[in-house]
Structures are given as C-alpha cells and as structure tokens.
Amino acid sequence: MSRRVVIAGGGTGGHVFPGLAVASELQARGVEVHWLGARRGLEAELVPERKLPLVLVDLEGLKARGPAAAVGALALLPRAVVTSVRTMLRLDPLAVVGVGGYASAAGLVAAGLLGLPTVLQEQNSVPGLTNRFLAPWSDLICCGFSDALAHFPSLPAEWTGNPVRQRFFDITPVAPHEPLRLLVLGGSQGSLFLNRMLPRALAILAGEGQVFTVKHQTGGRWAEVVKTSYADLGVEAEVSAFLAEPWRSLAETDLVVARAGALTVSELAAAGRGALLVPFAAAAGNHQEFNARSIERAGGAVVLTEDEASPERLAEVLGRIAGDPGTVRRMGEAAAGMARPDAARRIADRVIAIGGGL
Questions:
Q1: Tell me: the pLDDT tens digits for 14-66?
Q2: Which residue ranges make up each domain of the chain?
Q3: 275 strand-pairing partners
Q4: If I label 68, which of 126, 176, 180, 346 is the partner at 20 to 30 A Cα–Cα?
Q5: Residue from 183, 343, 202, 214 nearest 270 by CA
C-alpha cells in the first residue's frame, strides 16, 4: 500500500500553515507528503522551505472578480485538473487532503475522478466557497471550529480544531503586567484599518492617563507610516512589519488586538491570550465575524465590527478591559478553553484511517 499523502490547496497562510502542521504530523509517522498548490499562492514560497515536494498549477481565485475575469479563472481549471490527475497517477497516494483555497479544487476533483479517498480541512466557522462545493464528495470534513459542523448537517464532519504549532501551546498562562502589555496583530499583509485606528485610540487612553507597553505588527507596506503616526501622537510603541516568531510576542503580551482569521483565533486560543477582535468586514461570507463571535461566546474576546470600531470606542473597550487585571486573566483562561492541542494528530489519524491505514 502507498505511504504517500497529497495535500492540495493554499493561497493564504490561513490555509497553508494548518496544512504544513498536518504534513509534519504525517511525516513523523513515516508518511511521504507531497503538496499540490497554485503558482500564485503562498504555498509556492512556504512549502519548499519545509523541503516538501511541490507541484504547482495555474489557477486563480474567483472572489472580487468581474464576469470576464471570473470566466478566465474558470477556464484555467480543466488544465489544472489534468495536471492534478497526472500527479495523482504518478504518486498513487493513500489519500488526498484539501486545505482550502482554489488550488484545493483541482486536487480534490482529480482525486474524485480517480476514486481516491479525500479529506477536507475547513479552518473557519463558515465554510469557504471551495469547501462548500467539494464537501458532498469528500469522505470527511475536519472542522477548525465547532460552529462549522452546522454547515454540513448530513455529511461526515468532525470538530478536530485547527492545527497550531506546538510553540503556541507552550506559552505560560497570562500574568498581567503593569503597565499592561498590548500586542496589535495585523496579519502577514497587515491591516490598514487597525494601523489607522489603534494609534489614535491609544493616544486617547494616554491622554486619560492609561498607558500601555505597545507592540504593533503592521505588515510590510505600513511600518514607516505607523511609526510616524505613533510619534506624531506622542505614544511610545514598538512597530514591526512582521513577526518572525509570533509565539514569542504572544508569550510576552497580556492582551491582543487583532483581526479574526481562523489561524489568528486558533493561535490566540492555543496561547491563552484574550483579545479585542475587529473582523475584516470584506471577508468572504463574513467568516471572520463568525470566527470572532465563537471565541467571544466562550469569554475569550470582545468583538467590535469595523462600523463600531472608532478610535473612541476602541479606547473605551481597551480601557475597560485593561482596568481590571482579573478580566485579562479570565479572558486568557476562556480563550485557552477553546484550544485543541491535538488537532494535527486528530487530522492525521483520520487521513490514515480513511486511506486504509499504513
């Protein structure tokens, strides 16, 4: 029997990093892992860094496209499926894992045509377009949030959690500092909204005598602008374009302000850090708000939509949380209660079982 698994998909870090975590778990069991991705996706950069064999196809997403561009993107799919079929025939994998993103479609369609077992990994509370399309033909859907199960009522779905690197789980429980340490996370591309709003909100709080130790991750395009904003407003802040080791920054912080991508929320839970979350309003299907509401219901976050998150409102909420160290501790504990430290193991178990074992 084959000891190979193909992981298909990517596009963004929210799809690629969980897939890499599953790949590591499979490799630890002696499984040979190959990746099928899109030429323009983040996997083209990240997967070779992990020394995984990679096949790239030409595919583009359909989101935010006009009719003509969408037709052009769909026209690429048949050739990508043919390339994927050839790849599957050559590798003869025991199973194919779709991690979301448009490259996942080509790999899973090819697997379906060849009768190969397939597993979907859905990271968000609300499934994406690709996974909604592929789910009825999949052997199992592994959900990162329990809320996602409701979207697959008659299909084989299980809440496994999102795979998160072990370093996040190794972080000790929060012990609030004085002044409180605040981490602003904009994601790998940065958040223009947070970059604009947080310096102004923190300036309001500083004017009221409430000071934080601030670390702000901006994304590459905005670092100098945000540094200037803080300086002009008289607020001290450490500004970084990227966080090479985000678990270190979380270990050193007490409270987080962030967007609500699936991986961000899962890492906050793993680290046991409470947060003020401002979901990205343009996220497909409003999935970021659903992710954020999930951890908010558990008590690990406060959620403000973009419409609500003025500098004044952000200052009010941050000031209220920071004014009570007990609240900061309770939010961290509640966030930790949502974590699934064995997510990668669970998914690897299911992949191997559905593939017929080793």
A1: 889 999 999 999 999 999 999 999 988 889 999 999 999 999 998 765 554 55
A2: 4-164+341-354, 168-336
A3: 256, 301
A4: 126
A5: 343
**Rounded to an integer, what distance in angstroms lies between the CA atom of residue 219 and that of residue 222?**
6
8-state DSSP, 337? T
How many Å apart are CA 83 and CA 188, to the nearest integer?
Answer: 30
Q: Is 133 helix (H, G, I), strand (E, B) or coil?
A: helix
User: Same CATH fold, 168-336 and 4-164+341-354?
Assistant: yes
Q: Which amino acid is at 16?
A: V
CA 43/CA 54 separation, integer angstroms: 9
3-class state of residue 303 by DSSP: strand
Q: Which residue has the tokens 């005598």?
A: 209
Across-strand partners of 142?
Answer: 121, 158
Q: Is the Cα dihedral 334, 191, 162, 177 positive or negative?
A: negative
Give the CATH fold of the 168-336 domain: Rossmann fold (3.40.50)
Architecture of domain 4-164+341-354: 3-Layer(aba) Sandwich (3.40)
What is the C-alpha radius of gyration for the chain, rounded to an integer number of angstroms? Answer: 21
Q: Which two tokens stand for residue 241?
A: 């374009």
Per residue in 193-241, pLDDT tens?
A: 999 999 999 999 999 999 999 999 999 899 999 999 999 999 999 999 9
Cβ–Cβ < 8 Å for 316, 288: no
The half-sphere exposure of 197 on its side-chain side, counting CA atoms within 13 A, is 27
- Other residues' Cβ atoms within 10 Å of the Cβ of residue 55: 19
